[in-house]
Amino acid sequence: MSEPRTKNPVNVIETRGLSKRYPGTAALADVDYKVRRGKVNVLIGENGAGKSTLMKLLAGAETPTSGEIWIDEQLAQITDVRSAEKHGVGIIFQELNLFPDMTVAENIFAGNELTSSGVIRSKMENHQAKVLLDRLNIAIDPRTRLGDLYVGQQQLVEIAKALSKHIKVLIMDEPTSALSKTEVEILFKIIRQLKEDGVTVIYISHRLEEIMAIGDCITVLRNGRLVAEDDIANIDIPWIIEAMVGSSKKRFAFEQHAIGEEVLKVKDLALKRSNGIYAVDHVSFSVKAGEVVGIYGLMGAGRTELLESLLGAQPLALGEIELAGKAIEDMSIPKRIEAGIALVPEDRQKQGMVQLMSILENMTLSSLERFTRRFVGALIRDKQVEAANDIVKKLAIKATSVDAPITSLSGGNMQKVVIGKALLTKPKVLLMDEPTRGIDVGAKEDVYKTISLLAQSGIAVIYATSELDEAMAVSNRVFVMASGKLTADMERAHYDSERIVRASTPATAVV
Prior knowledge:
Layout lengths: L10 E12 L2 E7 L2 E3 L3 E5 L6 H9 L6 E6 L2 E2 L5 H6 L2 E4 L11 H5 L6 E2 L2 E2 L1 H14 L15 H13 L5 E5 L7 H16 L3 E5 L3 H7 L2 E6 L2 E7 L5 H9 L16 E11 L5 E11 L3 E6 L5 H9 L6 E6 L2 E2 L5 H7 L1 E4 L3 H5 L6 H5 L17 H14 L16 H13 L5 E5 L7 H16 L3 E6 L2 H6 L3 E6 L2 E7 L5 H8 L7
Parallel strand pairs: 4-11, 4-12, 7-10, 10-11, 16-21, 16-22, 19-20, 20-21
Antiparallel strand pairs: 1-2, 1-3, 1-5, 5-6, 8-9, 12-13, 14-15, 14-17, 17-18, 22-23
Helix pairs in contact: 8-17, 14-15
């Protein structure tokens, strides 16, 4: 066990050599992170920089591979969320952990109910909940059904829930991603009140102007390592961007190829969330045959919703879509696929494949009409096998047989099967949502080569990614999205990583 360092009451938390490794990747590497007491400690970095991993380690949602966590100058053994809470550390995740059919008070004390002789004391919970809400100047009746509140109000209930556990360090992960401007102002008042009450806040956000407004100090992670830290008063937005992006980014080899005529035209595509905020906010663009367009954006930017709207998976989406000069009005997914649009979804396990099926069955699932005898309905297996083997060869899928279970494949080869399934529908436009997520470096290279080959064959590829390097590596153009809007459209010859990062932050997004 390490000896305590020189006492420094300025820091409520210190990590020493904290690391977290998963098979094939180091999410966090030897991080010495300091959390200053009574301050808003901003934590920032690109997607995949290690922010969420670090916070999960502090909050007990994950355990470190190596390293130490010190709280109030004592070595802390944090093995789960409960033990973290005992040390005074609580977290509010971006996806709220609440129950819509329970009351506000019931949500605040869920898992920590106030009981007497095994019976929940509802009146006491309502009273204590009101005390907590009053402390935060939140005018909500604790008996209100949570599902009847706006998202912003639910976020405040989550804060009250954390305070009910007597936490002294509150981690807030992208707390304003789904809030209106007015709700953000209310949240900032709450955060300032928490500071006055002695609560330390760790604040994760991609909104740069927001960070400058609420933060006291800042820490920047890049590729799992701590690369910069300073007081907010000493830095500016360009400093943040340079620290996040770095100055020596390498790009993958990119082969130029011929681009054809316009194949997809989108005008005023819009999709509202249930809270009235636009997930896709009147987006217009066009893509040519053989062109690869990378869509870069941060979590909640609207990339997935945009691709799903193009496929017809969002029936409430509005706007005009033309494919190869013909207007597409039918909203159904089968009709969109028939017209020539295919999607490789973000979650291949849940949306891209059926785990109980073979490679062959998965690969031909979206194109069964091609392999079915007319008027009989029976599948022509020889034709199926021939098509599947052709895809296996083209995409270099490593499999003993197309009849093998899809679960026998590595993550990268599973992804290739999902891509192959889309290709068998013979698309004019292939939509790909985070196609390299969760696969190793070698498999990523294979996906990049596949995208290049598809584009060379004349297919238009629209590729959504949260990795800036990828967005620039494989594309002819990069679209940037923020808060549902298309905030930048950049040709390859004019790629500028700092401008892309700036455009991806809602408060600073400029086309």
